[in-house]
Every structure is written in structure tokens, then in C-alpha cells.
Amino acid sequence: MPYNPNKELKKFYSISEVAAKFNVAESLLRYWEKEFPNIKPKKTEGRGIRKYTAEDIAEIQLVYNLLKVRGMKIGAAKQVLAKNHDGANNTAEVLGYLQSIRQELIEISNELKEL
Q1: Number of domains in the chain
Q2: Does residue 86 form part of some domain?
């Protein structure tokens, strides 16, 4: 599911909300934080509860696209982001757009079948 930061109204998201958006485990998000320095959620004092911003979620979307959608290994994804972060971001945006179009076409097809 592509993430669109322009549609969101909340300023911060919990790790459980972000994990649910991408259908991944919270532990996987914590691991990605260690592997990808661009994912830097803020942490509360004391308990260290993570608070993700829209920018953090956009970075997670990039990593998710490279690892889960395109099937890259972590090392390859790191190289892509280091060499061409903007290109990877543009690719993720286009992919998200295409996925939303596909979903709309499926819905239209289902409606036509009901006629």
C-alpha cells in the first residue's frame, strides 16, 4: 500500500501504526532503523518510545519498496539509496501510483461483473 504523506493529518505515528501500514513486524522496523540511517524516528525521554513523522514513513516506504516489492537484499538496497536516493524515491512514487491505478481497475472490473 503506497504511503501518501499529503493525505495524513497526524504529526507523529507509533511503531505499531507504522508496522500496520506496511504489514510488517515492529521488530523489522527497528532492524531497518539500524541498517538505514535515513530512518530516524524521534524517541521520548525515559522509555524511548518511537514517534515516526511523515518523513520517516516516506523513508520506510522507499526501503519497503526496495526490499519487499523489488526483492533486493539489504546491501543492494543500501547501495541504491546511497547512489541514487532521489531516483529510488521517484521509482517508489511511480510504483505507488501504478498500484493505485491497478486497484481502481480491479474495482471497476468487479462492478462491471455485477451488471
Answers
A1: 1
A2: yes
